[in-house]
Amino acid sequence: MITAEAASESTVSAVPGDTAATGVPEREELVWPWKDAPIRELVQRIHQLQAERAQAFRRLEEPGPRQYLSSGPPYDFPRYRSTVHEVTQVFAAASREVLAVEAELAGPRAQPLLASHVRSLQQLEETRLTTVALLQLMGTPELTGQEDSLQIHQLKMKVIKTMEAISEVLQDLRFDAESAE
């Protein structure tokens, strides 16, 4: 499986400019490694990115972040911050690549239906991340006394419904991609 990190490492540079003539350090243009890939491979890449996102969500559910949020002072903030930073990087890299796939499908590939599936997926992932973060915050000691069990239940249901919608969009994407080839 190619990770977002591997994909960024697999970029190739365009012909560099003449540094001596301009006196400015050369700037290389990066080429996206999936530029000429068949649509089937682009869809597979979306599924790989979704797997990376799922793994990142699991990292947020690990004991470390959960213990930090429920422990109260004194917090082990550096460890928590490190975990959140790593997860944020995974989400950001996945989002950049998903948006690149969407642009490829909407533009050069002229596949607006597939591009709309990818856009929907991105929006649903944003909703999921926001809702999970809110649920975690509601579990902190500072807010535990103020928690509204109905609101927590509604947020949990929203996460479940969002995950179901994500699965449906992925299924539609795969089916419509097969039809497009």
UniProtKB/TrEMBL annotation:
| Superkingdom of origin | Eukaryota
Q: What is this protein called?
A: Required for excision 1-B domain-containing protein
Output the lineage of the source organism. Eukaryota, Metazoa, Chordata, Craniata, Vertebrata
Low complexity composition bias: which ranges? 1-15
Q: What PANTHER family is this protein classified in? A: REQUIRED FOR EXCISION 1-B DOMAIN-CONTAINING PROTEIN
Specify where the region named Disordered lies, as residue ranges. Answer: 1-22
